[in-house]
Design brief:
By secondary structure, the protein is an alpha+beta fold. It has four helices and six strands; from the N terminus they run αββββαββαα. It starts with a helix and ends in a 14-residue tail after the last helix.
């Protein structure tokens, strides 16, 4: 799975939004209900490095794998960075992203979860309206 395919996968989740943050952060963020579940770096030298939240057990396991490391500034919250997504088996990568999405969704209120899962929100519309 390459970065474009992974980006497409991240936008398929119900209620998922995609926001590009320019300099100085230079990240492409995927979130649900305002809770981030994945992001890509968009500037050199780390362009297209991919970060997701993982379980405590997976964090220990994955940070020992070459090409995976604790995410900068987010490692203490069990976020990992995958240097090259093409080197990770597709089914495993999808499993990791799906878990991260479910965790972000679970962090929302039950009411907000129900709204998102029932489809009563517009995909891609950010909370607070346009330009917020």
């Amino acid at each position: 799975m390459d970065t474009l395919q992974l980006q497409a996968h991240c936008t398929r989740f119900r209620g998922a939004t995609r926001v590009l943050h320019a300099a100085p952060s230079n990240i492409l963020v995927y979130s649900v209900g305002g809770k981030t579940f994945a992001y890509f770096k968009t500037s050199e030298p780390e362009r297209w490095r991919f970060s997701i939240k993982v379980s405590p057990e997976r964090f220990v396991e994955l940070t020992d794998v070459p090409g995976m490391k604790p995410a900068r500034y987010m490692g203490r919250y069990r976020w990992i960075t995958i240097v090259d997504v093409r080197r990770v088996p597709e089914d495993y990568l999808i499993e990791l992203v799906d878990w991260s999405y479910r965790q972000a969704l679970a962090g929302l209120s039950r009411k907000r979860q129900a709204e998102i899962l029932s489809g009563s929100t517009w995909p891609g519309l950010q909370q607070g309206g346009l330009g917020s």
